[in-house]
Amino acid sequence: xxxxxxxxxxxxxxxxxxxxxxxxxxxxxxxxxxxxxxxxxxxxxxxxxxxxxxxxxxxxxxxxxxxxxxxxxxxxxxxxxxxxxxxxxxxxxxxxxxxxxxxxxxxxxxxxxxxxxxxxxxxxxxxxxxxxxxxxxxxxxxxxxxxxxxxxxxxxxxxxxxxxxxxxxxxxxxxxxxxxxxxxxxxxxxxxxxxxxxxx
Length: 200
Fold this sequence. Notes:
Helices cover 34% and strands 16% of the residues. The chain is an alpha/beta fold. Strands 3-2-1-4-5-6 form a 6-stranded mixed β-sheet. Strand 4 (97-100), helix 4 and strand 5 form a beta-alpha-beta unit.
């Protein structure tokens, strides 16, 4: 499946954009996810399937993390544990390109499921840096604002904003769509974007 995805035109790729928000960690601690958002499409410009949930963790959310994403320990009281999400994650992430904006955190958190086989991964941060080298800041919000696509993200997941996991996942998908359209890359393949592709 991975080889087939590498040679499939970008416009036809099944894609799952994913983002996690975390509890934050002190030195020597292991960080934990507190929210996941996924937007899956069976082809790049196809209809979106949306999934999001808070995730229970075994220690309080640190204040500096809560300041960024607004998620508090109390909000996680009835949330499922990460391992309970395996069936949903496997259904949404299997057999497709997994998309994220600098997805190292996403790759690390999914390491909780050894041998899951998700991927290949496509990094919209690497794509944005290549496509928009004059921008001094390539954070997801800044790039989407520069391209004028933030309203598109808000329309896809209304009532949310940056640093919500679902909104950030939708932002990665909207960014990829905008770059593919703007650069006429519909027939390009992942193999030609090797600088932005990893196997996780």
